[in-house]
Design goal:
- This protein has helices spanning about 95-100, 115-135, 175-185, 190-195, 335-340, 345-350, 355-365, 365-435, 440-545; strands spanning about 10, 40-45, 60, 75-85, 100-105, 140-150, 170, 200-205, 215-220, 230-235, 245-250, 260, 270-275, 290, 305-315.
- The protein is of the alpha+beta class.
- The chain has two domains: about 40-315, Sandwich (Jelly Rolls); about 365-525.
- The strands form three sheets. Strands 1-5-13-8-15-6 form a six-stranded antiparallel beta sheet, with helices on both faces. Strands 2-4-12-9-14 form a five-stranded mixed beta sheet, with helices on one face. A four-stranded mixed beta sheet has the order 3-10-11-7, with helices on one face.
- The chain is elongated and about 200 Å long.
- Belongs to the asaB hydroxylase/desaturase family.
């Protein structure tokens, strides 16, 4: 699923100022009211402290319609006046482990609250991101239920009536027994593994469309609850009478610490814990209830409360054990599957106005208000039926007009297509006539083309043979040229060799002639020298002879 993660949320009230340095500008917008605190004093609805509850377990039929009278022994009464403090003026930070609840700021861009598939695809993704941001040690989240409360009368509130379409009984959604049963039913094979770790059920409550003016949600600090404050009450299905689950009902005692956020806006979220398997947590759950604000605090013509509450199983895997190979995807959550199919029932299908007014009549004596509410609701229902009938009539008329227009359009298209078909038929006849007239010519052309093709094939074959012959001739010529080349090279080499030998012989001959000439000259020179030497030797003898 595919939404973008929202910016980190921050605690509502003064406690958020301690975190401003670590949060984005969007997350740290001032939420504390500049005016005086709007603490309220009201009487909340509790289980009546009857002796029978010491021996008989409370039993409630769900859905609790008027025809279930006598089938339930749950009797409610208004407790003494109690003060519900406004968290906007409290410096104390609240958290889930120590108090069981936490007010945070978490803006949402989602607005399509009438589309259950859209809620499954987008809003649940934002809430999973919010849980990872605001809750410690979250390994896996599984959404399983939701309550979408929207106004049935265009959001208008009738002055002077204490009409409250929400659960205004101090209670705990489930007890430990049904919480463990719920975990086992929803997680199947992984249940044993998940129950060895830490399991929590956390409700995410947010106003939608506008601030809360008339009927807010109060939570009791879980850190000062007693073990016997919550009485287990079995709930059975009205249709079958079979066991459904257990819830926690509460009798009044002094000492409950109640809190709410005045005029809480759609960017505010209340996280409150319904179950925690960890015994180390100071608050393992907290009580909650809807309550009517005093009439003097409600602006004139203020819209009635509209809100969404999502319930989630939050798991921390057991330490030191191998994590599961498969973690539930958002699309596999039971709540996501229900919303994707649009099967989440409207709240007024589960809790009838007769049940709410029955409580008012039996416990508070508001007979007049109850009858006015019944009449007002019946009028609204009739008006709604009339509007639906008018819408159906208009829709039928529009569909009829659309059908007429569509029929006329189809008739025009049919006429155009008929004309086109007639035109094509005429063209087809003309083509057939031309084909019949030119069939002989076409046959002649075909025969001529066949003859030309045969001639072309014959010529092609002859050309192929001629080409092969020419190639063979060329190869023969190339061989002859190679032989001539080799022969020429041989003769050339021989001629060069003979020429070279003749040159050598001529050079030798010349050298020999030169040597002979030199020898002859040397011999003549030797002879001349010998003659000269002989004459020289003869001269001394003549001198000696003359001397004598």
């Amino acid at each position: 699923m595919s939404t973008q993660p929202q910016k980190p949320s921050s605690s509502l009230g003064p406690s958020s100022s301690t975190k401003e340095a670590n949060l984005s500008d969007h997350a740290t917008l001032k939420y504390r009211s500049d005016g005086p605190a709007k603490d309220v004093t009201v009487r909340l609805q509790y289980l009546k402290d009857l002796p029978m509850y010491k021996t008989i377990k409370p039993l409630q039929i769900t859905p609790n319609f008027q025809d279930t009278e006598g089938k339930t022994n749950v009797v409610l009464e208004a407790g003494p006046e109690e003060t519900i403090r406004d968290v906007r003026s409290i410096d104390q930070p609240f958290d889930l482990d120590n108090n069981g609840f936490k007010f945070v700021r978490a803006s949402t861009s989602f607005a399509n609250w009438s589309s259950q598939p859209a809620i499954a695809e987008h809003y649940l993704q934002e809430m999973e991101t919010l849980l990872h941001q605001e809750v410690e040690e979250v390994d896996e989240v599984l959404f399983y239920d939701a309550r979408i409360r929207q106004s049935g009368d265009e959001g208008l509130r009738v002055e002077g009536l204490s009409f409250n379409p929400f659960a205004k009984q101090v209670h705990r959604d489930n007890t430990d027994v049904s919480c463990v049963e719920k975990i086992r039913n929803l997680t199947d094979l992984k249940a044993d593994f998940l129950l060895r770790g830490r399991s929590r059920i956390i409700n995410i409550w947010r106003p939608i469309k506008h601030p809360v003016y008339d009927c807010s949600l109060a939570v009791a600090d879980g850190s000062n609850l007693h073990a016997d404050d919550v009485i287990e009450c079995d709930r059975h299905l009205a249709k079958t009478g079979t066991y459904h689950d257990t819830m926690g009902v509460v009798t009044y005692r002094p000492g409950f610490h109640w809190y709410y956020c005045s005029e809480m806006e759609p960017d505010g979220v209340l996280l409150f814990k319904n179950y925690d398997s960890s015994t180390a947590a100071q608050a393992r759950y907290c009580l909650h209830t809807a309550f009517d604000l005093p009439p003097e605090m409600i602006p004139k013509n203020a819209p009635t409360r509209e809100s969404i509450e999502v319930r989630a199983l939050v798991f921390t895997y057991p330490a030191g054990q191998r994590r599961p190979s498969i973690v539930a995807s958002l699309s596999s959550h039971p709540l996501a599957r229900t919303l994707a199919k649009g099967e989440l029932r409207r709240l007024d299908h589960e809790r009838s106005i007769t049940d709410r007014t029955r409580t008012d009549i039996d416990e508070a004596g508001e007979v007049k208000d109850a009858m006015l509410l019944l009449r007002k609701q019946e009028i609204k229902r009739l008006e709604h039926l009339c509007e639906e009938q008018e819408q159906l009539t208009q829709r039928a008329k529009q569909e009829r007009d659309n059908a007429y227009a569509h029929t006329e359009k189809l008739q025009r298209q049919m006429s155009i297509k008929t004309d086109r078909i007639e035109s094509l038929e005429a063209e087809l006849k003309l083509v057939q006539h031309k084909l019949n007239q030119s069939s002989s010519e076409l046959r002649f052309q075909l025969n001529q083309a066949q003859r030309d093709l045969v001639d072309a094939r014959r010529v092609s074959l002859e050309q192929h043979l001629e080409r092969e012959r020419l190639l063979e001739f060329v190869r023969g010529q190339e061989g002859q040229i190679q032989r001539w080349k080799e022969e020429a090279m041989g003769r050339g080499n021989e001629a060069v060799s003979n020429c070279w030998q003749a040159s050598v012989d001529e050079a030798v001959k010349r050298e020999r002639e030169k040597d002979g000439w030199l020898i002859k000259n040397l011999q003549e020179e030797i002879s001349r020298l010998q003659s000269k030497d002989s004459s020289l030797m003869a001269s001394p003898r003549n001198v000696e002879a003359n001397t004598e």
